[in-house]
Prior knowledge:
Layout: E1 2-6, E2 12-14, H1 21-34, H2 47-56, E3 62-64, H3 69-80, E4 84-89, H4 100-109, E5 112-115, E6 124-128, E7 135-139, H5 144-153, E8 161-166, H6 172-184, E9 189-193, E10 196-199, H7 215-227, E11 240-244, H8 257-262, E12 266-270, E13 274-279, E14 286-290, H9 298-308, E15 311-315, H10 327-337, E16 343-345, E17 349-352, E18 364-365, H11 371-377, E19 388-390, H12 402-408, E20 412-416
Parallel strand pairs: 2-11, 3-4, 7-8, 14-15, 18-19
Antiparallel strand pairs: 1-19, 1-20, 4-6, 5-6, 8-10, 9-10, 11-13, 12-13, 15-17, 16-17
Amino acid sequence: MQYLLTRPDSLNATIQLPASKSISNRALILHALSGGTTLPANLSDCDDTRVMVRALDGHPQHIDIMAAGTAMRFLTAYLSVTPGTRVITGTERMQQRPIRILVDALRTLGAQIDYIGNEGFPPLRITGSRLQGHEIELAGNVSSQYISALLMIGPVLPRGLELHLTGDIISRPYINLTLQLMHSFGANAQWTAPDRIKVEPGSYQDVPFTVESDWSAASYWYEMLALWSSDADDSVAAPCIELPGLLPHSHQGDSRGAEVFARLGIHTEYTAQGVRLTRTSTCADRLDEDMTDIPDLAQTFVVTCCLKGITFRFTGLQTLKIKETDRICALITELRKLGYVVRSEQDSILTWDGERCPASDAPAIDTYEDHRMAMAFAPACLVRPDIRINNPQVVSKSYPNYWKDLQVAGFRITEGTES
Length: 419
């Protein structure tokens, strides 16, 4: 399937974003560990959360989490402390995504985990038990989801958990988000030093909990406003996007995207309902940014900057190569279709110095089974009227109503067949 996107005549809309996938998936694990019956409210309806709900409902013996990396990591830890033997697997790409670091850490605590196929990769056979270990040393530059998975099972360990992170600690906001949610469910967990976290033994509480809207999803609406330009007369209303349900002091790491977009000419006004986005008259001509804490926004900012002619150097992107796809390679490949030569350094840096190349006629963007490739490139139709998105259904992983919301905002979508 392929979508041809046509820009709207104006850009004024109120969009109900999906609930946060990051919060939903953590809340589901914490709810399950509490043994409670009060399911969190306003859960995300994305693929990643659906597979988590299905896996936790009745604890099936064979769990297929498809392409949900978060579910694979969180459930691997959860199943290690849950009675029973289960197999957890996923898509072909999921079976190529490494999980050895998490498995080794859990084995240090006493977990019984076996590789069914290739050593170091899913699928896994996990036999849950009462883990007696309580201390782990882990490199701080691994995926924060490994760290969060371990932290969340900490309270149910007989002696709790002491986690020592070595070297540079990436994605610290995601770790803090996990700690904040653990507190919400009654756990006692905190940083005791810049590189150490202690989780006291105890139990989680079955408490009412409502999931807030997703700041990662909001980034694409910021991008649309940043790319908007119009030759219309003054009778057309100034562009404005309202996004209910976003909180000003959110623990979601991607809320920092609002501050970065402020340098690209987007003003965020916090209201009683959420946020109201408008354009300003100032915009940076270059962006240098450490994205260690916000790697999921890399595609959004790379595409935005190229299409606005803003040179950049984005560092801290070492986790991009092991996401749903190799996002560094995918960005470089697809942006060439639009005429931009983006380069990588050390598998963790993306740069653009303004270099251009011939663009493809009627470019069709491949999405690589990656939801964020589709959502980050779709707004390019505001600059390139002939943009096409291949396999657009991948957005269901985190934002199932993305295309419907684009239509609410006035975008026209024509369905075709990928050539």
